[in-house]
Amino acid sequence: MNNHPSGSNKGMGKGMMAVAMLLFLGIMTYVFQGELDKQVNPNQKVVSSVNSDGHTEIILKRNRAGHYVSSGTINYKSVVFLLDTGATNVAVPQQMADYLGLKPGRQITISTANGNTIGYQTHIDHLSIGDIQLQNIRAIITPNLNDILLGMSALKQLEFTQRGNQLIIRQ
């Protein structure tokens, strides 16, 4: 009687071990990617409240890089904003503008920290962060941008206060 496992059983054992390792790596990637996403955008689920004056209010946390990043919507489609008080308008990368259905208008020259570039005027019908809702916002479509910058064309309609690592925004 032969007590040694056959070659096919050894191969099956190695195959099962490989599947288990791949499954483990997949689960760990999923878990850690969620944690990394929270470090980049700690405001994935924006909680709104109504303060004692009857104003809608949200509180955003600063991310690891010191920026305020928040989930929201443009024209009812989910997006992620980088709040930028130095940006005159909301600035939308070209590929996001296509996804959002934004129509390019007049071509303009934009002055940025990296020099001048070309952009296109447009407008956003509806923009939201939590329960804060804004309509008819001036925006710029910018071909050489990675993030949607929530600039002053939207932020000037709101009141905001920074305390520590939090930004309180009221409408």
- CATH C-level of the largest domain: Mainly Beta
Helix-strand string: HEEEEEHEEEEHEE
Structural class: alpha+beta
Strand content: 35-45%
Low-confidence stretches: 32-37
State the helical fraction: 25-40%
Could you explain how this protein is built, in words?
This protein has 171 residues and is of the alpha+beta class. The chain has two domains: 1-40; 48-170, Acid Proteases (Cathepsin D, subunit A, domain 1). 26% of the residues lie in helices and 42% in strands. The protein is built from three helices and eleven strands. The strands form two sheets. Strands 3, 4, 5, 6, 7, 8 and 9 form a seven-stranded mixed beta sheet that branches. Strand 7 and strand 8 form a beta hairpin. The protein is extended, with a radius of gyration of 24 Å. It starts with 6 loop residues before the first helix and ends with a strand. Residues 32-37 have low confidence and may be disordered.
Quick structural summary:
Strands 3, 4, 5, 6, 7, 8 and 9 form a seven-stranded mixed sheet that branches. A four-stranded antiparallel sheet has the order 1-2-11-10, with no helix packed on it. The chain has helices at 7-40, 94-100, 152-155, and strands spanning 48-50, 56-61, 69-74, 77-83, 90-93, 107-112, 115-129, 132-142, 148-150, 159-163, 166-170.
Describe this protein with a few key phrases:
171 residues; alpha+beta; Cathepsin D, subunit A, domain 1; 2 domains; seven-stranded mixed sheet; four-stranded antiparallel sheet; 26% helix; extended
